[in-house]
Write a structure and sequence with these properties.
This protein is an alpha/beta fold and about 350 residues long. About 30% of the residues lie in helices and about 25% in strands. It has twelve helices and 17 strands. It has helices at about 15-25, 30-40, 65, 70-85, 100-110, 120, 210-220, 235-240, 275-285, 295-305, 305-310, 315-330, and strands spanning about 30, 90-95, 120-125, 140, 150-155, 165-170, 175-180, 185-195, 205, 220-230, 235, 250-255, 255-260, 270, 275, 290-295, 340-345. A seven-stranded mixed β-sheet has the order 4-3-2-5-10-17-16, sandwiched between helices. Strand 6 (about 165-170) and strand 7 (about 175-180) form a beta hairpin. Helix 4 (about 70-85) crosses helix 5 (about 100-110) and helix 7 runs parallel beside helix 9. The longest helix has 16 residues, at about 70-85.
Length: about 350
């Protein structure tokens, strides 16, 4: 006699999360934005509640996980900001979505290797309400702190994980995508027709309504200083180009990228490319001067990371380790195509390091 081995709700992902989403649907449908929010940020079962998401044994790699050199480059940029601010006695670095702290650790390690006053001034505030790290040098927060007088906000792949509205454009205009449970799986159903300025006339596209206000909020965390953003994305004219008809939504499960958000629910990451035009407008509206975006490859080369590799030639194993890492961090088909945007306020930034050209 064969047993019933059908995994039931588990076939769609984490069964507790799948059940929670079905219960919220209450026999109807919810917007894709809400579905994505629950899949990633459900307070108990969402994907970002898990540890071990990043790294060789996780689902994807980010730049800080490749090599500490990425954090060294960011640390050097932060020290430059501190110097241009007049070397204040207190300089706070605020990192929203800090994860388990790989970037924080490499920045702090780099700062501790220099005897120039920067480390003594540096206070690191990591905002991570989901699965925070344990580095005792970091102040771990589950909410945004009060504004600081001098400092910088650093984000790495933050905005691309915000829940988005999903649309299919056609003759009637953009039709919003909703999601329901058909008894066996999550399926899409059409919602209402929306009016969106500049929207594509055909194909699928996303709208990240949360990025603009979030950028405004981040700018409000520092009176004088900078916001430095690393993320996948494009200016709006490229993001909504006529040839881009399938959108930018990607899912990552055990280092495999695919386009189906309705499998591995709660066990996979979901991202979309960021509208850098929105981020720039938000920064400018908050009184910041915007620099970039440039590619991560251009930023790291211009910041001098190639010299960090060459300086290790006396120790060949370290030299090759750094060289391989630099190749991955600047690969135009991979992490090198991450975009970097800086916003500065309250000091004469000129052209910041890394933004001399793309």
């Amino acid at each position: 006699m064969a047993l019933d081995l059908n995994p039931g709700l588990g076939s769609a992902g984490n069964p507790r999360l799948v059940r929670a989403i079905i219960d919220e649907m209450a026999g109807g449908a919810i917007s894709f934005e809400r579905f994505m929010e629950l899949a990633l940020y459900h307070p108990k079962h969402g994907y970002y509640r898990k540890r071990g998401r990043v790294g060789p044994d996780g689902d994807f790699l980010t730049s800080p996980a490749i090599h500490p050199m990425f954090g060294w480059a960011v640390g050097g940029w932060l020290r430059w900001t501190w110097e241009r601010l007049g070397e204040p006695a207190s300089f706070s670095v605020i990192e929203p979505g800090a994860g388990e702290g790989a970037l924080a650790a490499s920045i702090l390690d780099w700062a501790e290797g220099h005897d120039d006053g920067f480390r003594q001034a540096l206070r690191y505030l990591a905002i991570e309400p989901n699965a925070p790290g344990r580095d005792s040098r970091v102040d771990w927060l589950d909410h945004a702190p009060d504004a600081v007088e001098a400092g910088a906000v650093v984000t790495n792949e933050l905005f691309d994980a915000f829940p988005v509205r999903l649309f299919d454009a056609g003759g009637r205009g953009p039709v919003e995508v909703f999601v329901r449970w058909d008894g066996e799986r999550f399926v899409e159903v059409p919602g209402g027709v929306a009016s969106i300025d500049g929207a594509p006339e055909a194909g699928r596209f996303e709208v990240n309504q949360r990025a603009y206000p979030a950028m405004r909020d981040l700018g409000g965390l520092v009176d004088r200083g900078a916001v430095l953003v690393f993320d996948y994305g494009y200016p709006q004219e490229d993001l909504w180009a006529p040839w881009r008809t399938t959108g930018t939504l990607l899912c990552f499960y055990r280092h495999t990228a695919h386009e189906d958000p309705y499998i591995h629910v709660g066990d996979q990451d979901m991202t979309t490319h960021v509208n850098f035009t929105d981020l720039a407008f938000a920064a400018q509206a908050s009184g910041f001067e915007v620099h970039g975006p440039v590619s991560q490859a251009a930023f790291l080369w211009a910041a001098g990371l190639g010299g960090v590799v060459e300086s290790a030639r006396a120790e060949m194993s370290e030299y090759f380790s750094r060289r391989r890492a630099l190749e991955r961090l600047t690969d135009s088909a991979g992490l090198g195509r991450v975009r970097v945007l800086a916003a500065t306020r309250g000091f004469d930034a000129g052209t910041p390091p890394g933004f001399g050209g793309d």
